[in-house]
Amino acid sequence: MKAGIVGLGLIGGSMAKAYKEAGHQVYAADIDSAILEMSMLAGVSDGVLNEKTLPECELIILCLYPKASVKWLEDNAQYIAKTAMVIDCCGVKREVCAPCFEIAAKYGFTYAGGHPMAGLQHSGYKYSRSNLFKGASMIIVPPSYEDIELLQRIKDILAPAQFGRITISNADEHDRMIAFTSQMAHVVSNAYIKSPTAKSHRGFSAGSYKDLTRVAKLNEVMWTELFLENADNLVSELDGLIASITAYRNAIDCGDAATLQELLAEGRRCKEEVDR
């Protein structure tokens, strides 16, 4: 297979390494010529993804920010073979899938929205690795939910990344769920670390601190775009969290042991229920 990878950051670089390690040809595109050159010197990519090599690719994976992914597809759709599959790896789906489905229909190739549920607290090509996605879930928003052959084709074409699970969703449900499972966690972590006490935490912190602050070191440019493109869902989740935090805060401030104990017990029960 010939695979085209657009964007060689953490996700794109890891995709390129995974497909190359699996024995496929990889063509890559990146705005940073030094990164692109590095990938070729390291044998991760076999050449530049451009109007000459695009028509040869059976798979194209878009690993750019949402708006940039749509723009790249608009600009390069004319070079993509009608037999090709295009999958994006953006963290929101409504703002990406709608225009990309239209572009794919216009030019005759197949597009599916995607979101690999894997990452690190670091970003950039230097942190990419071939096994980043091994065992992880890949969310797919297909153009048709009844086309079993298409779903199998997507599963097969993503096999080199070694995902442990393919989760089928629609754009609305994806964005609603991801506001809770990912975006709110990044907001909370980033806000939590702003406490002045954090500057003197050494010797007083353990697993709880590390778990809660792991994603505070984020890419603010990318996450700003993701948060704003999913603002309705994220604000709804944050409103619920603020209400819950306020209830805990008020019980503690008033010395209301009974209410506090029930709030804590309720949280424990919720965790036990979702972990079943």
> Average pLDDT, to the nearest integer?
96
Coarse shape: elongated
Radius of gyration: 21 Å
Separation of the first and last Cα atoms:
40 Å
Question: What characterizes the major β-sheet?
Answer: 8 strands, mixed
Describe this structure in words.
Helices cover 49% and strands 13% of the residues. With 276 residues, it is an alpha/beta fold. The protein is built from 10 helices and 8 strands. The chain is elongated, with a radius of gyration of 21 Å. Helix 9 (231-253) packs antiparallel against helix 10 (257-274). The mean pLDDT is 96. The chain starts with a strand and ends with a helix.
Main traits of this protein?
6-phosphogluconate dehydrogenase C-terminal fold; 2 domains; 13% strand; 10 helices; alpha/beta; single chain; Rossmann fold; eight-stranded mixed sheet; 276 residues
